[in-house]
Amino acid sequence: MRKRMVSTLLGVVIFFGFLQPAFPIDGSDWKALDETARSFYVVGVVDSWHNAITTVEIGEELHHEPSLYENLIKDILSCMKGQDMKYSQIIVIVDKYLADHPDAEAGPLVPSMVMAVHAAACGKEGKTL
């Protein structure tokens, strides 16, 4: 009985220990991530871009005009596909972008990531949003 109670209590502590607030990461957080965590982050962001574009395409069928941001993401994905860009390349691009734009480190990372990848993949200059 005691062993079961200890196991249950340990399971509850472990379960709630992994519950962290879901806030966007900034450049400082990015720098603290190891390579594996950075890879997972990049995969998640790029996957969300693909999902957003799928939603935009459905909206276009319903006569919804895509926003400037939606068009930007569509442009980025097109350029990334054209260059056969790998996730590892995106990590290098984001690292370089944050090194070149220290002011971008304080804000949420995704806008900086969007601009950095856009500039690198599409050959266009980007700024933080």
Keywords:
129 residues, mainly alpha, 6 helices, globular, disordered C terminus
What can you tell me about this protein's structure?
With 129 residues, the chain is mainly α. The protein has one domain. It is 71% helix and 0% strand. It has six helices and no strands. It has helices at 2-17, 27-32, 35-61, 68-82, 87-100, 109-122. Helix 3 (35-61) crosses helix 4 and helix 3 packs across helix 5 (87-100). The longest helix has 27 residues, at 35-61. The model is unreliable at 9-17 and 125-129 (pLDDT under 50).
What's the end-to-end separation, in Å?
Answer: 57 Å
* Strands, total number: 0
**How many domain units?**
1
Structural class: mainly alpha
Could you tell me the mean pLDDT? 75
Order of helices and strands: HHHHHH
Radius of gyration over C-alpha positions, nearest whole angstrom: 19 Å
Uncertain segments are 9-17, 125-129
Largest sheet: none
Total helical elements: 6
Identify the quaternary structure here.
Answer: single chain
Q: Strand portion, in percent?
A: under 5%
**What shape does the CA trace take?**
globular
The residue fraction in helices comes out at: over 70%
Short description:
The protein has 129 residues and is an all-alpha fold. Helices cover 71% and strands 0% of the residues.
Please render the helix and strand layout as text:
Layout: H1 2-17, H2 27-32, H3 35-61, H4 68-82, H5 87-100, H6 109-122
